[in-house]
């Protein structure tokens, strides 16, 4: 190879990360932070040795089939890899890495913030006070009533790093911790959280006051909260989702809230981002955030460090520490 391998980054990263990448690698950055369209992404993949995409970049089978012969590593700037066709990368002999573990605290913090905001309608109160068109007449015992959190049953779907971090925080607020996972967590952790494991997701859903979605997006979790399962929830229940939008059937969720079948939702992710079902966006019983649960400077820098470690390991002919493999499905 005549020159150092070319690393192409698809979006603007924190300045400190870009500076360090420039010191370590032959890197082409995106100074405008404009998302690459499919044609631009295809051109980048035709010349790159290493691609650093984000969750907004859909690395599809057709793009991979037409990628340049030198593309051998996709170092995803993000924990979730549902934006990448892993089966196609495997066939193409391309290694994929991600950035696990560094978003846990920030995502868990935002999850709990949504738990506080939705039942208590904190954001609506703040918006009211800051709207010059509204005149606050003072305190009233029957105005803007929410619900107490202490003693409520929280059902966590997915008890990995983030799910457990949510559980630790929620316990401090007095929630009763319940969870559904592929398998029970370690007994000592379960006892520490005083958490109840539900093998049946359906049975857990029917008994919870708040559901928190914290599992990864995979073919197995697509529309895990389907229209059928949403009907199992109590009409007083709330859903919080800081994982991935396609885990919930968004149209069914919008209908369920609109029809009063569930009490509301706190959503940081959506099924067809950046488009959002208008029934969710304009419903007073929904708190909608723009996919920002991990949006802290610290997490973005930590993600960049992970990306660089994976690239450096690959270039040094070592196994990247955060390599991702296609999920094996069992019948």
Strands, helices and their partners?
Elements (H helix, E strand, L loop, with lengths): L5 E4 L5 H10 L1 E3 L9 H10 L2 E3 L8 H5 L7 E3 L10 H7 L2 E3 L6 H17 L1 H8 L23 E5 L3 H12 L3 E5 L6 H7 L2 E2 L3 H5 L4 E4 L13 H4 L7 E4 L8 H9 L5 E4 L10 H4 L4 E3 L8 H19 L16
Parallel strand pairs: 1-2, 1-3, 3-4, 4-5, 6-7, 6-9, 7-8, 9-10, 10-11, 11-12
Helix pairs in contact: 1-13, 5-7
**What is the number of helices?**
13
**Largest sheet geometry:** 7 strands, parallel
Distance between the termini: 45 Å
Oligomer classification: single chain
The name of the CATH topology of the largest domain is: Rossmann fold
Strand content: 5-15%
Structural domains: how many: 2
CATH superfamily of the largest domain: NAD(P)-binding Rossmann-like Domain
Mean pLDDT: 92
CATH-defined architecture of the largest domain = 3-Layer(aba) Sandwich
Structural category is alpha/beta
- Write down the secondary-structure element order: EHEHEHEHEHHEHEHEHEHEHEHEH
Could you tell me the number of beta strands? 12
The level of helicity is 25-40%
For the largest beta sheet, what order do the strands appear in spatially?
8-7-6-9-10-11-12
Coarse morphology: globular
Taking all Cα atoms into account, the compactness measure Rg is 22 Å
Catalogue the unreliable spans: none
CATH class of the largest domain: Alpha Beta
Description:
Helices cover 35% and strands 13% of the residues. The chain has 13 helices and twelve strands. The strands form two sheets. The chain has a seven-stranded parallel sheet with strand order 8-7-6-9-10-11-12. The chain has a five-stranded parallel sheet with strand order 2-1-3-4-5, sandwiched between helices. Helix 1 runs parallel beside helix 13 and helix 5 (104-120) packs across helix 7 (161-172). The model has no long low-confidence stretch (mean pLDDT 92).
């Amino acid at each position: 190879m005549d020159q150092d391998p070319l690393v192409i980054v698809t979006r603007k990263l924190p300045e400190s990360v870009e500076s360090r990448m420039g010191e370590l690698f032959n890197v082409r950055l995106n100074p405008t932070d404009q998302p690459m369209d499919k044609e631009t992404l295809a051109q980048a993949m035709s010349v790159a040795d290493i691609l650093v995409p984000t969750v907004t970049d859909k690395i599809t089978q057709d793009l991979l089939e037409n990628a340049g012969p030198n593309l051998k590593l996709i170092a995803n700037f993000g924990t979730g890899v549902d934006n990448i066709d892993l089966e196609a990368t495997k066939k193409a002999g391309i290694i994929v890495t991600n950035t696990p573990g560094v978003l846990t605290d920030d995502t868990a913090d935002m999850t709990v913030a949504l738990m506080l905001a939705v039942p208590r309608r904190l954001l609506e109160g703040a918006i009211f006070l800051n709207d010059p068109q509204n005149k606050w007449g003072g305190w009233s015992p029957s105005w803007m009533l929410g619900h107490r959190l202490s003693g409520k049953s929280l059902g966590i779907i997915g008890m990995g790093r983030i799910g457990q971090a949510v559980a630790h925080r929620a316990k401090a607020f007095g929630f009763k911790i319940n969870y559904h996972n592929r398998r029970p967590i370690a007994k000592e952790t379960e006892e520490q959280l005083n958490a109840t494991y539900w093998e049946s997701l359906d049975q857990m859903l029917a008994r919870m006051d708040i559901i928190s979605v914290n599992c990864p997006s995979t073919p197995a979790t697509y529309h895990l909260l389907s229209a059928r399962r949403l009907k199992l929830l109590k009409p007083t229940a709330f859903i919080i989702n800081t994982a991935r939008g396609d885990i919930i059937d968004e149209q069914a969720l919008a209908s369920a809230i609109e029809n009063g079948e569930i009490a509301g939702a706190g959503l940081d992710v959506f099924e067809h981002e950046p488009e959002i079902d208008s029934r969710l966006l304009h419903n007073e019983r929904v708190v909608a955030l723009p996919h920002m649960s991990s949006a802290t400077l610290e997490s973005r820098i930590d993600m960049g460090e992970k990306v660089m470690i994976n690239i450096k390991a690959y270039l040094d002919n070592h196994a990247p520490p955060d390599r991702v493999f296609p999920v094996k499905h069992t019948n």
